[in-house]
Design the sequence.
């Protein structure tokens, strides 16, 4: 039951994180859309391309979740300590709180994570030029796969969460659930960019979303601490 709650939580975090996605990936969506043939840029004609970009992005997220879940599995089984898993879960909860502060604009410490990942992105980004401008769905899919490795504090925070699952499959599913949560914002942004961008970048919207993500982090911490309280 707790596993299903974690997947649901990851989905909701992705949904709330749409306020960040609009700013981080909105420019990418716009650039990719403008690169399409002129007769396929407007309205619902662009939807197949948006789906291709985003489904490929989710594939990259899922792969990253599998890898990070595997790292957690190795840590727990190599050391054979239940405490390691609890520490990983506590770190993930703290990252969730930091993520909420980041989304709300109250403390942007996670932007340093994005800077740290910029080195990896600098190696991947030149590959995207080979597939632009986008003229076919396979091209859109490949660009989406590469896009999934864009440095993002939101993604990195959930990746830390996937490490705490200490299971490759669970880590992959957690990242998939998170990615599905980001879909509504990014697909709608591609179809109705101006309206959606204006709404979800509103400061009050960001604060509410950030506060809810902080709440998720606090609940996760309480779930870790509570067994020790009952034991006392």
Sequence:
């Amino acid at each position: 039951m707790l596993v299903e709650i974690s997947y649901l939580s990851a989905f909701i975090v992705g949904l709330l994180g749409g306020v960040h996605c609009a700013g981080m990936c909105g420019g990418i969506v716009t650039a990719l859309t403008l690169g399409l043939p002129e007769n396929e840029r407007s309205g619902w004609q662009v939807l197949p391309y948006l789906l291709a970009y985003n489904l490929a992005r989710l594939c990259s997220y899922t792969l990253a979740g599998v890898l990070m879940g595997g790292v957690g599995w190795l840590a727990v089984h190599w050391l054979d300590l239940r405490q390691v898993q609890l520490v990983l879960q506590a770190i993930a909860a703290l990252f969730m709180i930091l993520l909420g502060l980041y989304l709300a604009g109250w403390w942007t410490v996670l932007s340093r994570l994005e800077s740290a990942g910029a080195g990896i992105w600098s190696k991947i980004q030149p590959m995207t030029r080979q597939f632009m401008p986008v003229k076919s769905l396979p091209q859109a899919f490949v660009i989406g796969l590469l896009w999934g490795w864009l440095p993002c504090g939101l993604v990195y925070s959930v990746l830390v969460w996937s490490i705490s699952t200490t299971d490759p499959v669970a880590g992959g599913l957690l990242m998939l659930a998170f990615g599905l949560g980001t879909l509504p914002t990014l697909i709608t942004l591609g179809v109705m960019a101006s309206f959606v961008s204006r709404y979800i970048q509103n400061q009050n919207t960001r604060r509410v979303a950030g506060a809810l993500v902080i709440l998720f982090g606090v609940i996760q911490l309480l779930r870790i601490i509570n067994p020790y309280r009952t034991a006392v």
Notes: The radius of gyration is 18 Å. Confidence is low (pLDDT under 50) at residues 228-232. Residues 19 and 141 are 24 Å apart (CA to CA). The longest helix spans residues 47-79.
